[in-house]
Fold this protein.
Amino acid sequence: MGKLVQVATNTVTSAVASVTLTGINSDDVYMIAMNNIVPVDNSRNLFVRVTKSGTPDTTSNYDVAGKQLRTDTTFSNSASTNSDKFLIHFNQGNLTGEANNIIYYLYNFNSSSEYSFITFEETGFNSTPNLMGNQGGGVHTVASASDGVHFYMSAGNIASGTFTLYRVV
Amino acid sequence: MSEYGYIPEAPEQSAFNNKGIFSPKDIYNLDRADKWTPQLGQLELIETQTVSGAVAGVDFTNLGDYNVHFITTHSFSSATDFGSLGLRVSTDSGSSFKTSSYQYANQYANVGNFGEQKSTSTDMIRQMTAPNSGSSPFGSNGYAYLYNFLNSGKFSFVTWHSTCLISFNSNYEGYFGSGVYPVAETHNAFRLMTTNSSNVDNGTISLYGIGYS
């Protein structure tokens, strides 16, 4: 099993509009661990973009497919193509004890000739609240190097959370 | 002479950008100043337990001090068929384990069919592996992430992904899902056990802390 080397981390303890983790500068696989992610406002989506030279890429080149595993109803599929962001994390709750917890693996981000791929697995409570898991993958279909990941809420701020980027060596 | 005493003089130091020759004192001081590149091993092994005879459960009572934990399971099997891997949490360092109010949602993928399993009120976080018994090539292999177990203000969450050959029909089956014990309190130990009340018959389980998470 490989080891993890921390590259960047950001712990949010008072509300911020976004979090950006950068520092991807090798061809290794990278991992992001997120825990206690809570929006200021209930029922918000956590949006995600890759960064190019530290700046979020807002072009419509994000594809994603995932399975939502939930306790309240039949599991659902979600998929989107050519969005201007990764649409992965939905309807997040902010009541006592609730928080979203997520692992990403990042592939080919440092390559200037390949697309940037991610896999994700998530667990948390939605705003109902019900247990909501989410597993799947996505791709940013631009063949250029990505050096990080940018997170922000669909509306309002991020209230709390720890975001940590690791290099898998 | 630079601030830390190494050669060359006065290079600008920061994590992942250290330059020069360092004495142990330099490293200590740089680390305290948060300017030292963390060493490898931030996936930090806490404990490995190997089961080679029937036990009621595999208890982990030392969780260290981490926000996120990671466990791997290798060749996990129950003493009888239809026992998959389940998890219970403890607030008293493993003297007792919570027996109700768990929730989980799991997707399985079998060579014959796909399906979902879920509950909003059950006796453990269930279905972390396929139901399995017997020894190699049977037994389940997989991993799980544990979140916020030591955070008194947050629920304790788990995600998992596992893969195996099922002993009673030799079919391949994979599982992935998530679960929660939705009580905001510190959980300083947990038990891995079977979901059909039989013993754990076999398996190697390692617990890691993800440093600086």
In short: Residues 19 and 151 of chain A are 5 Å apart (CA to CA). The radius of gyration of chain A is 15 Å. Chain A has a mean pLDDT of 92.
